[in-house]
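Suppose you are handed a protein chain with no further information: no name, no annotation, nothing but its sequence. What can you learn? This example shows the usual starting point.
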Amino acid sequence: MSQPDRRSATAPAGAALAGGLQAVVFDMDGLLVDSEPLWFEAERSVMARLGGKWTAADQHVLVGGSMTVTVEYLLERGTRPVPPEAVSAWLIDSMVELLTTRPLPVLPGAVELVAEVAAEGLPFALVTSSESAVMEAVLGRLGVAFPVTVCGADVTRAKPDPEGYLLAAAKLGVDPRYSIALEDSPNGVAAAEAAGYLAVAVPSIVPIPAMPGRLVLDSLAGLGVPRLRALVRDLRRDFARPR
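A reasonable first move is to predict its three-dimensional structure. Written in structure tokens, the prediction is:
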């Protein structure tokens, strides 16, 4: 799949000149649901089948990464030769089982913010590195519907590459520069910002520093559309000032 042309994701000039919020794009793992402990459990189970050990430090390396990177890392740490496709299937099957048989660990403010964005009539989307089966397992129980989703199978280059975020903007018909991406990992923030979005980071495991054009929060709770609109207005105004 070729990378979407940034120009194809540009909304009408009037909307951009107005400086208003055009779209909100959500990550999934670690942002909407606290799935990282489940990923740790699934990865540890797979590593046991590969004859190796799995630690929290190993998981930290993979936060926000793709299935391909995860499988390669697991095989490097393991001692038994197994086809990558089998390792990927083990991981996906394990995650789907955990997500569908355990209480869904929804993070504070997540469902409320998605519902508020939808009620305001703002375009919104989900961009996740997870495979479609994992994404569908989460969304099937989350109780919210996304008009646009981008998962691991939809891109050729995973986060921190911006391809997924550019694809979401193209599908929504919005300008990333006037859109906000909500992320929990450094890889996700890097992908969103490389695509031109303003990032709101809610770190799950790995710390993310605040910097110009980026807001770092402890939780989505209390983060409503008015504050998102103000962020776009204020941050873009700051960028436009002479240096």
